Amino acid sequence: MCFIRTAEPLEYHRSFLKENCRPDGRELGEFRPTTLNIGSIGTADGSAMVKIGNTTVICGIKAELSAPPSDAPDKGYIVPNVDLPPLCSSRFRPGPPGEQAQAASQFIADVIDGSKIIKKEDLCIEKSKLCWVLYCDIMCLDYDGNVLDACIITLLAALKNTQIPKVTINKETDLAEVDIEHKRHLQINKHPVSSSFAVFDDTVLIVDPTAEEESLATSVITAVVDEDDQLCAFHKPGGSSLSAEKLQDCITRSVTRHREVGKLIDKVLESTKASK
Amino acid sequence: VPADRKRVRGPEESQCPLLFLPPAAQTAEPREPRAGRGNGEVRPLFARCGLVSQAKGSSYLEAGNTKILCSVYGPREPERRDEAGVRSGRLLCDLRLAPFSCGKRGAWIQGSGERDLSLALSESLHPAVCLHRYPRAQIEVNVMVLENDGSVLAHAVTCASMALADAGIEMYDVVLGSALRQDGGASLVDPDLAEERGNWLAGYEENRGGVTLSLLPNLNQVSGLHADGELRADTLSAAVRTCMESCHKLYPVVQQAILRAVKRKAPPPEK
Fold first, then answer.
1. What pairs with residue A109 in β-bridges?
2. Distance of CA B31 to CAs A143, B194, B198, Å?
3. Chain A: nearest CA to B244, how far in angstroms?
4. Which residues cross the membrane (chain A) (predicted)?
5. Is any Cβ of chain A less than 8 angstroms from the Cβ of B7?
6. How many angstroms separate the Cα of B107 from the Cα of each of A81, B9, B98, B194?
């Protein structure tokens, strides 16, 4: 029985899942080809662009100076923000960030806090006086599903690429002095990588859903794992219930994905260093 | 400033580190002549169409370090029915500068500068698109500037018209943009950011300003002209003529990019 993709999308996808594959030819547990480009934006202190299949996400990091928060005088700030502009897909309208963008921003902020990718104490220059603020602006340029994975990878790559100048406080004038000649990289403690899954009909688990698959799925799951195989974050906003074995499958698959992505990021960073 | 409740909040105020450079670094450097190109030459252009899979048409343009991405959606039903024109369609243009695109971080909320640029873009593209062929429909052009290294409006116009061509929107002609910076006696075509800003320490001199022009090359008609600063009348007309010439120089590159995209979408039949 042949199903038309636009008329009956769910039946169309089900007919493929019965044969244990997907309309674009992938296996159930296969990710789309991932490419990474680091350091292309000259005006940003660090930048990276990731393409997972058609989904394209770019992250630019700008470092600014500010007074530390009054409740944590020895910590700096990391401010991530995800933008889904109308440029990337016709489902997003111009104006303030919608629900999906806000949820993504909050998710990234939670992953940064939970995985301790950067210690906020490292961003403090002088206690109670001056600290760094890292604005991580993540923008989606082409939306084809699985934006959260792409955002985390691009954020990690951009942070590894970021260089901030040395800052000292002049004792007499009490003002900051920036030495733009001497720059240092950030101290990255952990390398979290996320993997997203979608659940069809409460039973079938597929990896790296496209936009079409996401809209037909009964549930979406994102698991974030770091290099010590520790689970940093697990995001399952509602949807169908899953057994413990299925959840364990997700986490195991994320660990494998972490190795692939880790190698990719290291390879690209090596090649950018070599070309300099 | 109203609190932006929909985004993750940072500190109330933060300053760009470039404000705190020691005085030694801020003295005027002697202005180097343009590396590798003459005063009348445009920067080498890289243009590709069809990069955004979700959009009807899209294009990416790089001129020196300026990087611009544009995507076109439409013709589609307008959101508010009462605004739909019976006779002709609507063209909605939106130009945005990414927060990391300029030396000083920009805010997410669109400022008046961006709105002015969007309006200028819309005025430049309007005469070229055959809107009477799309009654009751709306065509959306979204331009995103990923890195700002000068001549943003000019390159945004070129990028947007390539994206419209890629989307198959009927047009009378492509619209090409070019910018010029007049600095005393020197006219610099396609200025980069340092040249555009000018040297504030050089003092007051006559004939300092910039011109941005949008041209329909085959019809040889100007669809948009913006000039700022102080320019004498004869300098201004010379600048407009120089801009028109540099638009004609850009035309082959744009033509190539559009042809490539068309050949990819509809490959010629094999003999």
1. none
2. 43, 10, 10
3. 30
4. none
5. yes
6. 11, 12, 9, 22
| Nearest to A208, CA basis, from A195, A223, A217, A194 | A195
Q: Are A42 and B147 in contact (CB under 8 A)?
A: yes
Q: State both tokens at B170.
A: 């009927």
The H or E element containing residue B97 is strand B90-97
Chain A touched by B249 (CB under 8 Å): no
Eight-class DSSP state of B42: P
Q: Which domains does chain A have, with CATH numbers?
A: 25-275 (3.30.230.70)
pLDDT band at B203 (very low <50, low <70, confident <90, very high): low
Interface test with B, best of A64, A124, A163, A210 (most B CBs within 10 A): A64
B190 φψ region: left (φ > 0), alpha (ψ -120 to 50), beta (else): left
What is the pLDDT averaged over residues A47-71? 92
| Residue B14, pLDDT above cutoff 90 | no
Does residue B225 carry a pLDDT above 60?
Answer: yes
Chain A environment of B7 (Cβ under 8 Å) = 81, 97, 102, 105
Size of interface A-B (CB pairs under 8 A): 138
C-alpha angle A193-B109-B99 in degrees, rounded to nearest 5: 50
The mean per-residue pLDDT over the stretch A154-163 comes to 93
Does residue B192 have a pLDDT over 70?
Answer: yes
Q: How far apart are CA B219 and CA A20, in angstroms?
A: 57
- Window 32-61 of B: residues touching A by CB (8 A cutoff) are 51-55
User: What is the tens place of the pLDDT at every residue in A7-19?
Assistant: 888 888 888 888 8
Please name which of A251, A250, A258, A249 lies closest in space to residue A193, comparing C-alpha atoms. A258
Give B171-180 pLDDT, tens digit per residue: 999 999 999 9
Please report residues of A whose CB lies closer than 8 A to that of B100: 41, 43-44, 47, 60-62, 135, 137
Which residues of chain B have a CB within 8 Å of the CB of A40?
67
What domains, with CATH codes, occur in chain B?
A: 40-264 (3.30.230.70)
Mutate which of A87, A105, A111 to disrupt the B interface (most B C-beta within 10 Å)?
A: A87
Q: Does B101 touch chain A (CB under 8 A)?
A: yes
pLDDT score, position B81: 67
